Amino acid sequence: MGVVQVRDEGGLLVLTPDGAPLVTDAAPGLDVLVIEVVGGHLSWSLHSDEALPGAVLDDRVAAQDWLWAVYGETVAVAVADDHPQTLTAEPAQPDLITDLRRLAYAHWVTRWWPASTIDAIPALDHNLLTSELAALTERCEMVAGGADAQVPYGGRARSDDHTSRLDSGTDLTGTADPSLARESGSARTASPTSPASEPTRREGRREDYALAAGGAVATGGLILARGTGGWDWRRCPPGILDASEQAVTWEVSRAAGVSTVRVSVVAAPDCREPIPAHLRPVAYVGAVTGATRLAGQTNTPIPDLPDTGPAVTSGGSDFDAPTRTLAVALRLQGDSWVGHVQLPDGADSVVTVDVFVPGVGPADPPEDESAQRERIRGFARERLTGANGFPRLAAETAAEEGDF
Questions:
Q1: What is the pTM of this model?
Q2: Do 308 and 300 touch, CB atoms closer than 8 A?
Q3: What is the pLDDT of residues 227-239, one digit of tens each?
Q4: Residue of 132, 88, 97, 112 whose CA lies nearest to 33
Q5: Which candidate, 86, 224, 271, 291, has a CA 20 to 30 Å from the CA of 183?
Q6: Helix (H, G, I), strand (E, B) or coil at 182
Q7: Sign of the C-alpha dihedral computed for residues 383, 387, 390 and 396 taken in this order
Q8: What is the spatial distance between Cα 64 and Cα 59, in angstroms, rounded to a whole number?
C-alpha cells in the first residue's frame, strides 16, 4: 500500500508515489529503473525501497488492463474517470509489482552496471542476464509493452551484442526519455550473445591499471604533464570502457621540438573484439595557448566542439587563452583504448580530455555526475556482497562467486 497522486500533465496521465522518478523528469538520473509497459512507462529509483512505481501513461485506456493489479481498483477507476486526486493504492497483485521492479532492474543492469577492473567490480554474464530477463518478461506479460515485452530468444544471441544494443530503437540512457531515444536511435537493453562471440575473460589485476593504465606507449623526451579521470557514462554503450573515475589517463611529452598528447582508456572487463567502427570511442583533447598552468582531467563532455573558444574545465581553473580542440581516434590495444595526437604549434598545455562514442547519448548532457556514478559503484559493491535488501540476479551471484 502507498499514497499515489494521479494528475494530468499536458495530455499525459501521471501516477506518482512520493518522490518517485518519472520518465518526464527534465534530467532523469543514471539511477532510474524504467520499463516500457502497455500504455506508458513505469519507473523506480535504484536507491529507494519504494515498491510502487511512478507511471507516465500516454494511453490510459490500454493501461486499464493492468492498472488494477499494480495500483488497485480505486486508482484504476480514477484513471478511467480522468479524475486527478490523491489516493491510497492497494495493489491487487503485489507479487507482480516485485517482478516488474526486478525486470526494470535487470534492464538497468544491462546498461549501467559499473563493470571495472580498476574498481574491482566484475562484469556480469550476458547469457545469465538474458535468461533471467526472458523469465521475468514472461511473468510480467500482462504489463510489459513495446521493446520490453520482447522475450529474448532462449538466452542466446541473435546478433552481435554491442551492435544490437544500439540498433533496437529504444532508449540508450536507461531512462526511457523518448527524445534521447530518437536522438541516438539506441537501446538500453542488451541482446543475448552468440556462441561465436562469448565474452573474453580478462585476468588483469587492479594494480595493473594505475596511472597511464594499460601501459601507454613509451616515449622519449620530456614528460610535461599527465592526468587521470573518468568519462560520461551516458556517452558510451556498455561493454566498451572501464567505468572507473580513473579509467582515462593522458600525458603530454615533448621531443625534437614537437609536443604530443597520448591518451589511454582502460577497456571494460568484458570488452571484446570486433568492435564495430561506429562504436569505437574517440578522445577530444582541448589544448590551450598561453596558459600558465595545467588543469586536471575533466569529466565534462564536449558535444559539437568548436576549434577555438574559451577553455572548458570542471577543475576550478580559469584560462583566458583560446582553446583548440583535437580529435584523437582510439584503437583497442590489449586491455586499453589508446591514441595520440601532435599538439599544434603554440599549444603548450591540455585543459580537457573527453572520451565518448560519437552520436551516443544526449547532445546536451547533464552537469558532472561523478558523485552519482560513485554512489552506483557503492550500490554494485553492496549487491555483490549481498548487503543490499532485495534478492540478487543470477548474474550478480555468479560474479560474486567468481564464476565469470
A1: 0.79
A2: no
A3: 999 999 999 999 9
A4: 112
A5: 271
A6: helix
A7: positive
A8: 9
First and final CA of the chain: distance in angstroms? 39
How high is the pLDDT of residue 96?
A: 96
What residues contact 304, with CB distance under 8 A and at least 6 apart?
363
Answer for the pair 287, 349: CB distance below 8 angstroms, yes or no: yes
pLDDT digits (tens, 9 = 90+) for 70-81: 999 999 999 998
Is the pLDDT at 124 greater than 90? The verdict is: yes
Provide mean pLDDT across the span 304-320.
Answer: 33
**Burial of 257 from C-beta contacts in 10 A (0-12 / 13-18 / 19+):** exposed
User: pLDDT for 353-399, tens place per residue?
Assistant: 999 999 998 877 777 899 999 999 999 999 998 877 788 999 999 99
**Residue 233 DSSP one-character state:** G
Q: Which residues of 336-353 are buried (b: 16+ CB within 10 A; e: fewer)?
A: bbbbbbebeeebbbbbbb
Q: How far apart are CA 171 and CA 367, in angstroms?
A: 20
Cell of 29: 538520473
Nearest to 327 by CA among 285, 293, 363: 285
In the chain, what are the helix, strand and coil shares in percent, each to the nearest 5? 25, 25, 50
- Convert 58-127 into a string of H (helix), E (strand) and C (coil): CCHHHHHHHHHHHHCHHHHHHHHCCCCEEEEECCCCHHHHHHHHHHHHHHHHHHHCCCECCCCECCCCHH
Q: Residue type at 61? A: V
Long-range contacts of 129-138 (CB under 8 A, 24+ apart): 129/190, 129/393, 129/395, 130/155, 130/156, 130/190, 130/191, 130/192, 130/193, 131/155, 131/394, 132/106, 132/393, 132/394, 132/395, 133/103, 133/106, 133/107, 133/189, 136/99, 136/102, 136/103, 136/106, 137/103
- Predicted local confidence at residue 351, as pLDDT: 80
Residues 6+ apart with CB under 8 A from 125: 199, 395, 398, 399, 403, 404
**pLDDT at position 219, please?**
55
In this predicted structure, the answer to whether residue 184 has a pLDDT above a threshold of 80 is no
What is the percent of the chain where pLDDT is above 90?
54
The DSSP annotation for 302-315 comes to -TT--SSSS---SS
Higher pLDDT, 98 or 82: 98
Q: Which residues contact 365 (CB under 8 A, 6 or more apart)?
A: 232, 234, 235, 301, 303
The gap from C-alpha 104 to its chain's centroid, in whole angstroms, comes to: 14
Q: Distance between alpha carbon 16 and the CA centroid of its chain, in Å?
A: 24
Residue range 91-95: average pLDDT? 95
